[in-house]
Task: structure prediction
Amino acid sequence: MSSLGNFVKRLRDIMRNDAGINGDAQRIEQIAWLLFLKVYDTKEEDWEFDDDAYESIIPEDCRWRNWAVDDGKGTALTGDDLLDFVNNTLFPTLKNLPVDASTPIKKAIVQTTFADANNYMKDGVYLRQVIDVIDEIEFDDVKESHAFGFVYEEI
Result:
């Protein structure tokens, strides 16, 4: 994506249409958990490449690549199905991941990130649009790896 400013504007424009988002604080939280999962999935690809024995703390159906990515075949979750998955599967699963003192920080961070996170969006079509915009970013591109800080500054 050539312009992160344009990226933020696109997300804000979509979220302004959703009845569940009320102000920048909620937009920031919404964008943060989505960006976190996208970035974490990219990091996991690296960890899997480096370590054949790597096992994700996130169950397969909750990994970004398995529910968020639109493969262009018309099977991507959207609408009420997407909201149901996010609210009743994704969030409860990530909030309750088994974490203890022996859990590596790179895995425990998922549960701690979602412990107080919320999905504010009420329209699954708008949520799909936001996810698709976020999925356009390639976090393995060094120029776009600073997206988190920029998003906060822009909003």
Helices lie at 4-15, 24-50, 64-67, 79-95, 105-114, 124-135, 147-154.
